[in-house]
Protein backbone atom coordinates (compact mmCIF):
# COMPACT_ATOMS: atom_id res chain seq x y z
CA UNK A 1 0.00 0.00 0.00
CA UNK A 2 1.36 3.39 -0.91
CA UNK A 3 1.37 6.21 1.58
CA UNK A 4 2.06 9.80 0.58
CA UNK A 5 3.57 11.65 3.51
CA UNK A 6 3.86 15.39 3.80
CA UNK A 7 7.06 15.74 5.82
CA UNK A 8 8.10 19.03 7.40
CA UNK A 9 11.46 19.75 9.03
CA UNK A 10 11.10 22.54 11.55
CA UNK A 11 13.35 24.34 13.96
CA UNK A 12 12.93 26.82 16.77
CA UNK A 13 15.82 29.24 16.99
CA UNK A 14 17.31 30.91 18.81
CA UNK A 15 16.26 29.38 22.10
CA UNK A 16 17.10 32.57 23.96
CA UNK A 17 14.07 34.78 23.73
CA UNK A 18 11.91 32.05 22.24
CA UNK A 19 8.37 32.42 23.51
CA UNK A 20 5.57 29.89 23.34
CA UNK A 21 2.00 31.21 23.29
CA UNK A 22 0.00 30.30 26.33
CA UNK A 23 -3.03 28.05 26.11
CA UNK A 24 -6.31 29.97 25.72
CA UNK A 25 -8.31 30.49 28.89
CA UNK A 26 -11.12 28.02 29.49
CA UNK A 27 -14.63 29.17 28.81
CA UNK A 28 -17.96 27.43 28.95
CA UNK A 29 -20.18 26.21 26.18
CA UNK A 30 -17.75 24.20 24.04
CA UNK A 31 -16.57 20.73 24.97
CA UNK A 32 -13.47 21.06 22.78
CA UNK A 33 -12.35 24.10 24.74
CA UNK A 34 -12.80 22.21 27.97
CA UNK A 35 -10.75 19.26 26.76
CA UNK A 36 -7.91 21.40 25.44
CA UNK A 37 -7.66 23.16 28.78
CA UNK A 38 -7.51 20.04 30.94
CA UNK A 39 -4.10 20.32 32.54
CA UNK A 40 -1.49 17.60 32.71
CA UNK A 41 1.78 17.78 34.58
CA UNK A 42 4.79 17.85 32.30
CA UNK A 43 8.01 16.89 34.04
CA UNK A 44 11.60 16.26 32.99
CA UNK A 45 12.63 12.63 32.64
CA UNK A 46 15.69 11.98 34.79
CA UNK A 47 18.58 10.34 32.98
CA UNK A 48 18.86 7.54 35.55
CA UNK A 49 15.22 6.79 36.42
CA UNK A 50 14.72 3.29 35.02
CA UNK A 51 11.11 3.05 36.21
CA UNK A 52 10.13 6.24 34.39
CA UNK A 53 12.05 5.10 31.31
CA UNK A 54 9.99 1.90 31.15
CA UNK A 55 6.77 3.90 31.52
CA UNK A 56 7.94 6.02 28.59
CA UNK A 57 8.63 2.88 26.56
CA UNK A 58 5.02 1.77 27.12
CA UNK A 59 3.76 5.14 25.89
CA UNK A 60 5.90 4.90 22.75
CA UNK A 61 4.56 1.38 22.10
CA UNK A 62 0.94 2.55 22.25
CA UNK A 63 1.14 6.23 21.43
CA UNK A 64 3.85 6.50 18.75
CA UNK A 65 4.58 3.32 16.79
CA UNK A 66 0.93 2.67 15.80
CA UNK A 67 0.06 6.35 15.26
CA UNK A 68 3.03 8.10 13.64
CA UNK A 69 2.67 8.25 9.86
CA UNK A 70 6.11 7.04 8.83
CA UNK A 71 6.18 4.27 11.45
CA UNK A 72 3.00 2.91 9.90
CA UNK A 73 4.31 3.40 6.36
CA UNK A 74 7.50 1.47 7.21
CA UNK A 75 5.63 -1.27 9.03
CA UNK A 76 7.12 -0.55 12.45
CA UNK A 77 3.66 -0.82 13.99
CA UNK A 78 3.44 -4.49 12.95
CA UNK A 79 7.07 -5.60 13.44
CA UNK A 80 8.00 -6.67 16.98
CA UNK A 81 11.72 -6.94 16.21
CA UNK A 82 11.81 -3.46 14.68
CA UNK A 83 10.06 -2.12 17.76
CA UNK A 84 12.56 -3.87 20.05
CA UNK A 85 15.45 -2.26 18.19
CA UNK A 86 13.87 1.18 18.21
CA UNK A 87 13.09 0.91 21.91
CA UNK A 88 16.81 0.38 22.52
CA UNK A 89 17.31 3.75 20.82
CA UNK A 90 14.55 5.23 22.97
CA UNK A 91 16.17 3.98 26.19
CA UNK A 92 19.59 5.29 25.17
CA UNK A 93 18.08 8.67 24.32
CA UNK A 94 16.13 8.88 27.58
CA UNK A 95 19.46 8.36 29.38
CA UNK A 96 20.66 11.70 27.97
CA UNK A 97 18.27 13.48 30.34
CA UNK A 98 16.65 15.87 27.84
CA UNK A 99 13.25 14.16 27.54
CA UNK A 100 9.96 15.17 29.17
CA UNK A 101 6.81 13.26 30.14
CA UNK A 102 3.19 14.23 30.72
CA UNK A 103 1.15 12.83 33.61
CA UNK A 104 -2.55 12.66 34.37
CA UNK A 105 -2.36 12.05 38.08
CA UNK A 106 0.26 9.34 38.48
CA UNK A 107 -0.25 7.90 34.99
CA UNK A 108 2.18 8.84 32.23
CA UNK A 109 0.05 9.73 29.21
CA UNK A 110 2.65 11.24 26.89
CA UNK A 111 6.38 11.56 26.32
CA UNK A 112 8.73 13.58 24.16
CA UNK A 113 11.90 11.56 23.62
CA UNK A 114 14.51 14.23 22.95
CA UNK A 115 17.92 13.63 21.44
CA UNK A 116 20.83 16.00 22.13
CA UNK A 117 22.51 16.46 18.76
CA UNK A 118 26.05 17.66 18.08
CA UNK A 119 27.54 18.12 14.65
CA UNK A 120 29.56 15.04 13.66
CA UNK A 121 33.24 15.40 12.91
CA UNK A 122 33.67 15.49 9.11
CA UNK A 123 33.90 11.95 7.80
CA UNK A 124 32.23 10.43 10.85
CA UNK A 125 28.66 9.17 11.08
CA UNK A 126 26.03 10.79 13.26
CA UNK A 127 24.47 8.85 16.14
CA UNK A 128 21.41 8.07 14.02
CA UNK A 129 23.57 6.96 11.09
CA UNK A 130 25.56 4.63 13.35
CA UNK A 131 22.36 3.20 14.76
CA UNK A 132 20.95 2.61 11.26
CA UNK A 133 24.18 0.88 10.20
CA UNK A 134 24.85 -1.20 13.31
CA UNK A 135 21.66 -1.73 15.30
CA UNK A 136 18.63 -1.33 13.04
CA UNK A 137 18.82 -4.68 11.28
CA UNK A 138 15.06 -5.14 10.75
CA UNK A 139 13.83 -3.60 7.52
CA UNK A 140 11.17 -1.49 9.24
CA UNK A 141 13.46 -0.01 11.91
CA UNK A 142 16.24 0.58 9.40
CA UNK A 143 13.81 2.33 7.04
CA UNK A 144 12.56 4.63 9.79
CA UNK A 145 16.00 5.66 11.07
CA UNK A 146 17.39 6.00 7.53
CA UNK A 147 14.44 8.28 6.78
CA UNK A 148 15.27 10.36 9.86
CA UNK A 149 18.90 10.65 8.71
CA UNK A 150 17.78 11.64 5.21
CA UNK A 151 15.47 14.37 6.49
CA UNK A 152 18.03 15.66 9.02
CA UNK A 153 20.52 15.96 6.16
CA UNK A 154 18.24 18.20 4.12
CA UNK A 155 19.09 21.28 6.20
CA UNK A 156 22.14 22.30 8.25
CA UNK A 157 20.24 23.03 11.43
CA UNK A 158 23.45 23.71 13.37
CA UNK A 159 24.21 26.58 10.99
CA UNK A 160 20.59 27.72 11.14
CA UNK A 161 20.65 27.69 14.94
CA UNK A 162 24.04 29.37 15.16
CA UNK A 163 25.85 26.60 17.00
CA UNK A 164 25.58 23.32 18.82
CA UNK A 165 24.17 21.40 20.51
CA UNK A 166 20.59 21.37 19.35
CA UNK A 167 17.83 19.24 20.79
CA UNK A 168 15.86 17.08 18.37
CA UNK A 169 12.36 16.07 19.38
CA UNK A 170 12.89 12.51 18.16
CA UNK A 171 9.65 10.73 19.12
CA UNK A 172 6.46 12.40 20.39
CA UNK A 173 3.99 9.86 21.78
CA UNK A 174 0.60 10.38 23.43
CA UNK A 175 -1.72 7.61 24.60
CA UNK A 176 -4.87 7.43 22.44
CA UNK A 177 -7.16 7.99 25.42
CA UNK A 178 -5.31 11.22 26.26
CA UNK A 179 -5.85 12.73 22.82
CA UNK A 180 -7.52 16.09 22.30
CA UNK A 181 -6.14 17.59 25.49
CA UNK A 182 -3.15 19.44 24.10
CA UNK A 183 -0.68 16.94 25.56
CA UNK A 184 1.56 16.96 22.48
CA UNK A 185 1.68 20.75 22.48
CA UNK A 186 2.54 20.89 26.18
CA UNK A 187 5.30 18.31 25.74
CA UNK A 188 6.76 20.26 22.83
CA UNK A 189 6.63 23.55 24.73
CA UNK A 190 8.38 21.97 27.70
CA UNK A 191 10.99 20.49 25.37
CA UNK A 192 11.88 24.02 24.29
CA UNK A 193 12.22 25.06 27.94
CA UNK A 194 14.45 22.09 28.73
CA UNK A 195 16.60 22.78 25.69
CA UNK A 196 17.00 26.39 26.73
CA UNK A 197 18.01 25.30 30.22
CA UNK A 198 20.68 23.02 28.78
CA UNK A 199 22.15 25.83 26.69
CA UNK A 200 21.02 24.34 23.38
CA UNK A 201 21.01 26.63 20.36
CA UNK A 202 17.77 25.32 18.92
CA UNK A 203 15.09 22.66 18.86
CA UNK A 204 14.29 20.65 15.75
CA UNK A 205 11.54 18.20 14.85
CA UNK A 206 10.32 16.22 11.88
CA UNK A 207 6.56 16.58 11.56
CA UNK A 208 4.74 13.97 9.44
CA UNK A 209 1.12 14.75 10.32
CA UNK A 210 -1.04 17.85 10.21
CA UNK A 211 -1.56 17.48 13.96
CA UNK A 212 2.14 17.79 14.73
CA UNK A 213 2.65 20.52 12.14
CA UNK A 214 -0.09 22.49 13.89
CA UNK A 215 1.85 22.15 17.16
CA UNK A 216 4.95 23.54 15.48
CA UNK A 217 3.06 26.48 14.00
CA UNK A 218 1.43 27.32 17.31
CA UNK A 219 4.71 27.25 19.20
CA UNK A 220 6.60 29.40 16.70
CA UNK A 221 8.74 26.79 14.97
CA UNK A 222 10.08 27.83 11.58
CA UNK A 223 9.73 25.50 8.60
CA UNK A 224 13.21 24.78 7.22
CA UNK A 225 12.28 22.18 4.64
CA UNK A 226 9.14 20.55 3.37
CA UNK A 227 9.23 17.31 1.46
CA UNK A 228 6.63 14.98 0.03
CA UNK A 229 7.78 11.42 0.60
CA UNK A 230 6.27 8.32 -0.95
CA UNK A 231 6.65 5.24 1.21
CA UNK A 232 5.34 1.73 0.97
CA UNK A 233 3.65 -0.26 3.72
From TrEMBL:
Q: Which GO terms describe its molecular function?
A: N-acetyltransferase activity
| CDD domains xrefs | NAT_SF (cd04301)
Report the residue ranges that make up the N-acetyltransferase domain in this protein: 116-233
What domain of life is recorded for the organism?
Eukaryota
- In Swiss-Prot or TrEMBL terms, this protein is called N-acetyltransferase domain-containing protein
Specify the species: Megalurothrips usitatus (bean blossom thrips)
Amino acid sequence: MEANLDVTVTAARPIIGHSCPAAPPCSGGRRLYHRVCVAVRVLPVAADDAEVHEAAVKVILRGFFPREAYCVACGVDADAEAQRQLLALVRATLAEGASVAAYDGDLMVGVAVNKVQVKPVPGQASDFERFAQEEATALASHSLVAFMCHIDGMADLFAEAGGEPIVELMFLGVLPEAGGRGVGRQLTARTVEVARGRGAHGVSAIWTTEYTRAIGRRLGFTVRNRNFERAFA
